[in-house]
Specification:
This protein is an alpha/beta fold. It folds into two domains: 191 residues, 3-Layer(aba) Sandwich (D-Maltodextrin-Binding Protein, domain 2); 148 residues, D-Maltodextrin-Binding Protein, domain 2 (3-Layer(aba) Sandwich). Helices cover 41% and strands 15% of the residues. The strands form three sheets. The protein has a five-stranded mixed β-sheet, with helices on both faces. α5 links the parallel β6 and β7. α5 runs antiparallel to α10. It starts with a helix and ends with a helix.
Length: 361
């Protein structure tokens, strides 16, 4: 637990560094007696929705003025409906937010499904996720260790949509590593894909680590029908990959690639995958307020967000569920991710566009 205490202490110190407007606290707190609606663009009851609801219970305790925070589900288009709604249709008074997965590929490719511009939102907070690829072990001639994936006969990859970042993570990484697969899209969410894997309609998928070790615990247990094959490690501010000690000793993708090919991954597809991991795995869930929200409100929400992130009781709860604390993106790094998105190179856009177009055929 020493590591957790150090992590919490560091985050608590960081939370104190979040800029606070002194004039906002000279009077009654902005949120005193108010209710804040947190819109989640996912169906109720899933792993991500449960995480957000749990976090929100703690978040409201730390916002100056102690508002009541309620979660409302607005599923559809991978959180884009909720994102567009908060961008276009709500009052910028700090009483309605969107919190959930963002879709940087939609903005990078100018997809019409996204009418919002992420750079125009008010950044409140962000959390990370560990993305893990897992599959059935009975794909001929059999999967006994992660490196065997390149020896397997063709298998089916379950996906949601060609523009979905999870699908892109899967397809890019499998192409890089040299696996043989068919892309089967159109499933409605991770639960439907997991059901297809249990039925052996699909054999491979990508999910969050928390979901893998809770929902799929029996599937990946010793003697189960499946196993994790790799996860995507993100970089620190120095650009170095940060490895995790995960259940089952799951290898980081870059390490598995080097084990199989004897060298680090490189080339245009790797550059696009690396970009995607940094934006959609390192910064997985964004809490955003509408453009024009008063800074007094933004500062109060951000202060509460990061103090909740440093709550030791909350982190212990997450560790009990998944074996890992939830990592939160420091406040100064969240807006930087939005800037990275705005500066996406033409080369990366070209690779993304080719994958989306080929996935639609």
């Amino acid at each position: 637990m020493t590591g957790l205490r150090s992590w919490i202490a560091a985050f608590a110190l960081f939370a104190l560094l979040v800029p606070i407007d002194g004039t906002a606290h000279a009077q009654a707190p902005y949120y005193e007696g108010k209710t804040v609606k947190v819109i989640v663009g996912l169906r109720a009851g899933g792993t991500a929705d449960t995480f957000i609801r749990t976090f929100t219970d703690y978040w409201q305790k730390y916002v100056p003025g102690n508002p009541t925070m309620v979660v409302e589900n607005m599923p559809g288009s991978g959180n884009l409906i909720a994102t567009n709604h908060v961008y276009e249709a709500v009052e910028p008074d700090g009483l309605t937010l969107v919190y959930g997965p963002w879709v940087p590929t939609a903005q990078a490719l100018d997809l019409p499904e996204l009418r919002a511009d992420y750079a125009n939102f008010e950044f409140v907070g962000a959390s990370s996720d560990i993305r893990v690829s897992y599959m059935r072990k009975d794909v001929p001639p059999g999967l006994t260790k992660p490196a065997d994936i390149v020896k397997l006969e063709t298998f089916n990859v379950g996906g949601n949509a060609p523009t979905d970042f999870v699908d892109l993570l899967s397809r890019m990484s499998l192409d890089l590593i040299g696996a043989k697969y068919n892309y089967v899209t159109g499933y409605r969410g991770g639960s439907a894909i997991y059901a297809a894997i249990l039925a052996n309609e699909a054999q491979y998928a990508n999910t969050s680590y928390g979901t893998l070790v809770t929902r799929s615990a029996d599937f990946i247990a010793e003697g189960g029908d499946g196993m994790p094959v790799y996860y995507f490690c993100t970089r620190n501010t120095a650009g170095e990959f940060v490895r995790k000690e995960l259940q089952g000793n799951i290898p980081c993708f870059v390490d598995l690639y080097e084990e199989i090919h004897g060298k680090p991954p490189s080339g245009p597809v790797w550059d696009a995958l690396d970009w995607l991991v940094e934006l959609a795995a390192k910064v997985t869930f964004l809490a955003l307020a509408p453009p024009g929200t008063p800074q007094e409100a933004v500062v109060a929400l951000r202060e509460g967000f990061y103090k909740a992130a440093a709550d030791e009781e909350l982190q212990k709860l997450f560790i009990e569920r998944t074996g890992e604390p939830v990592e939160f993106v420091p406040a100064e790094e969240g807006p930087a991710a939005l800037e990275v998105l705005a500066a996406t190179s033409d080369e990366i856009k070209k690779v993304l566009r080719e994958y989306v177009e080929s996935g639609q055929k």
